[in-house]
Specification:
With about 140 residues, the protein is mainly alpha-helical. Helix content is about 80%, strand content about 0%. The chain folds into two domains: about 60 residues, lambda repressor-like DNA-binding domains (434 Repressor (Amino-terminal Domain), Orthogonal Bundle), CATH 1.10.260.40; about 70 residues.
């Protein structure tokens, strides 16, 4: 067992460091050092934890996969953050589409203005060409 597994074991079983120390017959400081990774847990202590675990009907082999209350809270917070990010992305996408629509409308207006200018120029060219033909 590593330091994180020991702490998770304690959290899953809702045990204080003092209670865990009493279960395995060590001092509270020893449990603290196990959880900090400053000291390795001995095989006899692991056996006592497995025995306690089996009596509590929670498998010690699944501790790494089990969620402590803190982990569940973190999962909820992470989900909420992801939901907010998704909403923000949708808003940004909508604003982008609005900006594109506005820009397309501006471009369409410019094209209409250019077409009108071209029509006026064509009319002027036809008019001037007609005047030149009439002179000859």
């Amino acid at each position: 067992m590593n330091s994180l597994e020991i702490k998770k074991f304690r959290e899953i079983h809702s045990l204080s460091q003092d209670q865990l120390a009493k279960i395995v017959g060590v001092k509270v400081g020893t449990v603290s050092k196990w959880e900090q990774g400053a000291r390795n847990i001995g095989q006899s202590a692991i056996l006592l934890l497995k025995d306690y675990d089996s009596r509590e009907q929670v498998s010690i082999n699944n501790i790494a996969q089990k969620k402590s209350p803190n982990d569940r809270f973190e999962d909820i917070v992470a989900k909420k953050v992801m939901d907010l990010m998704e909403i923000k992305l949708k808003i940004i996408t909508m604003k982008f589409h609005q900006m594109v629509e506005v820009e397309l409308a501006k471009q369409a207006l410019r094209i209409e203005q250019m077409q009108e200018s071209i029509e006026v120029m064509e009319e002027n060219i036809i008019k001037e060409t007609t005047e030149i033909k009439n002179k000859f």
